[in-house]
Amino acid sequence: MHRHLKHLAAPLLLLSASLAQAAPDARAVLGHYADLAHAVYSDSLTTAQALHSAAEQLVAKPSEATLEAARTAWRAARVPYQQSEAFRFGNPIVDEWEGKVNAWPLDEGLIDYVAASYGDESEENPLYTANVIASPALVISGTTIDAEQITPALLAETLHEADGVESNVATGYHAVEFLLWGQDLNGNGPGAGARPASDFDTAHCSWGHCDRRGAYLLAATQLLVDDLSWMVAQWEANGAARSQLMADPQAGISTILVGMGSLSYGELAGERMKLGLMLHDPEEEHDCFSDNTHWSHYHDALGIQNVYTGHYSRVDGSRMQGPSLSALVAAHNPEADKNLRDHLAATLAKMQVLVDSAEKEGVAYDQLIGPGNQSGNAKVLAAVEALVDQARAIEATVAVLDLAPIAIEGSDSLDAPHKVR
After folding, report:
1. pLDDT values of the chain reduced to their tens digit, one per residue, 421 residues
2. What is the DSSP letter of 405?
3. 316: Cβ contacts below 8 Å, ≥ 6 apart
4. What is the C-alpha to C-alpha distance for residues 357 and 114, in angstroms, rounded to an integer?
5. Would you give the end-to-end CA distance of the chain in angstroms?
6. CA distance 52 to 304
7. What is the CA radius of gyration of the chain?
8. Beta-carbon-side half-sphere exposure of residue 205 (alpha carbons within 13 Å)
9. How far is 64 from 67, CA to CA, in rounded Å?
10. How far apart are CA 153 and CA 172, in angstroms?
């Protein structure tokens, strides 16, 4: 060995040893991941409770001020919940539950009055214009249903996905969003839904059935609280989701990567963004009544970054950090870790462009995906491409960690665009 190489050998050995020591135990990484899940669902619950309280105020004293306060509470509730979606894919308990709280798009005619342009029938959905709020009795699958009392049980057990139709969304954030904003009838033009507060005012009711509309809003927001309370429990010390995750450390690490990759690729890049861009369809906008989509997409991307880095900023202002997948990858291959962190940052930067478009320039997401809006389309496509590149970087870490190959969710809009209608 050359003399100068001998001098280098000891520092290199020390560096190698320090990297090995810096590698967190897989169980520690999984434990912190579960702690993050518990925290983000707890924050989602807290903000849902605030939303329910705001809904109570709106129903008790309908005014433009109480309506706007309820809308503000809804937007605030979306911030932690969207960051939770990185826990969905890979964790069966979460994935099977998610449709109760975040299913979309929905056939809003199931719930309430709609504009004539909505149409009055659908070959796929017999309840397309059922209008639960105006109908104390409903016929579902040939059976007459008593809907005189609008309760959480009626929404969850009878109406949600009634007749086996996925667009019969009767519960969750988007049902509440429709109740607070009404239809967005602006197409790819500016403006969100414009439901008046008088829709909840029994003394000066603008569209009839204001008592039942208020009852629906209260039932839906209470159900949101109930469903999130259940999910918080799944991530507690002996919760089923935590226990399932911790049962096999290697499989648990794969679960984290499946969640990150599937949300990045098939769900967010594909179903929520590329599809709407291909069709130029404002109905494919995730928060289509409120024009809040730019924030929902941003917080989805932030949630993916949170899961990888082990960081989370809570709604009370505190910040969590702990043993992370990033540290585990870095211990095996620092370059692979840096590459993935760079992709996560690049994706957030592209999402920030969409936020700035809406918040600073007044051009909402449904306008960006409109036909003929070349610059807007390009902004959305850039975010899609960043998500796809990010997903590839996530897949690459599987080999770095010597894990079995994973399968992430796909999307026709990305994998087979010729199938998109």
Report:
1. 433 433 433 343 333 434 444 779 999 999 999 999 999 999 999 999 999 999 999 999 999 999 999 999 999 999 999 999 999 999 999 999 999 999 999 999 999 999 999 999 898 999 999 999 999 999 999 999 999 999 999 999 999 999 999 999 999 999 999 999 999 999 999 999 999 999 999 999 999 999 999 999 999 999 999 999 999 999 999 999 999 999 999 999 999 999 999 999 999 999 999 999 999 999 899 999 999 999 999 999 999 999 999 999 999 999 999 999 999 999 999 999 999 999 999 999 999 999 999 999 999 999 999 999 999 999 999 999 999 999 999 999 999 999 999 999 999 999 999 898 7
2. P
3. none
4. 29
5. 67
6. 28
7. 23
8. 12
9. 5
10. 13
d(CA 97, CA 82): 15
Q: Cα dihedral angle (166, 289, 44, 312), rounded to 10 degrees?
A: 110
Token duo for residue 307: 């899961």
How many angstroms separate the CA atoms of 84 and 243, rounded?
18
Which residues have a Cβ under 8 Å from the Cβ of 204 and sit 6 or more positions away? 198
> What is the C-alpha separation between 406 and 169, in angstroms, rounded?
31
State how far the alpha carbon of 255 is from the alpha carbons of 172, 174, 271, 336, 345, in Å: 25, 27, 21, 19, 22
Residues composing the chain: 421
Cα(392)–Cα(239) distance, integer angstroms? 32
Q: How many CB atoms lie under 10 A from the CB of residue 242?
A: 22
Dump the DSSP string for 220-273. Answer: HHHHHHHHHHHHHHHTSTT-HHHHHHHT-HHHHHHHHHHHHHHIIIIIIIIIII
Encoded tokens for 70: 């309820």
Predicted TM-score (pTM) of this structure? 0.94
CB of 260 within 8 A of CB of 303?
no
Is the CB of residue 108 less than 8 Å from the CB of residue 75?
no
CA distances from 10 to 15, 17, 23, 334 (A): 9, 11, 20, 20
